[in-house]
Amino acid sequence: MSLYRAGDRERAFGELVKSFSERLYWHVRGLVGSHEDTDDLLQDIFVKIWNGLATFRGDSQLFTWVFRIATNEALNFLRKQSLRATFGLEEAERVVDNDSYFGGNEMQRLLAVAISKLPPKQRAVFNLRYFDEMPYEQMSEVLGTSVGALKASYHFAYEKVKEYLLQHGVE
Fold first, then answer.
1. CATH code where residue 55 lies
2. What stretch of H or E contains 55?
3. Exposed e or buried b for every residue in 30-69, given b needs 16+ CB within 10 A?
4. What DSSP state is assigned to residue 34?
5. Which of these, 78, 75, 67, lies nearest to 135 by C-alpha position?
6. What is the residue range of 45's domain?
7. Which of 28, 60, 111, 144 is 20 to 30 A from 171, comparing alpha carbons?
């Protein structure tokens, strides 16, 4: 932000993209499931970040502000696509099985399918906590939800994932 405030906006944005691209990719990918949708969304996310940098006041950390934008964009994408209404087991498995960028084993495939079956907000909470190991306080800033609600949401998501894995022979 110091580069941006000093007038070197393009360099500041380049550093921001370099710093956050990989983490944002995997965060958004965990929410939307496909590489192609993630790439498209990342472009939109970075445009929003670029357009919003001038109004970033620093009330939160840059990291949480960026993740909030990415999370909101991914959740909006899922809502627009109405995936929750039609995203059954077969569809979840098809998305994972047809993803040429998925390189996991059977356990990872089952985990990806189980996570893809979660409602979008629970999926976001699960991914932020389980994969990103984000503290609940930081998640609260990113998602705009109370810590207590996030803990409950994570618990329900964890139990759903665990139940799915147990049903498919993973202990």
1. 1.20.140.160
2. none
3. bbbbbeebbeebbeebbeebeeebeeeeeeeebebbbbeb
4. -
5. 67
6. 2-167
7. 28
For residue 56, CA distances in Å to 8, 19, 20, 107 come to: 16, 17, 16, 41
Q: Give CA–CA dist 35/29, Å, rounded.
A: 7
The total number of structural domains that make up the chain:
1
* pLDDT tens, position by position, 90-118: 455 555 555 555 556 788 888 888 998 89
Q: Are 42 and 48 in contact (CB under 8 A)?
A: no
Amino acid at 65: W
Query: What is the rounded CA–CA span in Å between residue 89 and residue 100?
Result: 19
pLDDT tens per residue, range 101-160 = 555 678 888 888 899 889 888 999 999 999 889 999 999 988 889 999 999 999 999 999
DSSP string, 100-161: TT----HHHHHHHHHHHTS-HHHHHHHIIIIIS---HHHHHHHHT--HHHHHHHHHHHHHHH
Mean pLDDT of the residues in the chain = 83
**Do the beta carbons of residue 85 and residue 94 sit within 8 Å?**
no
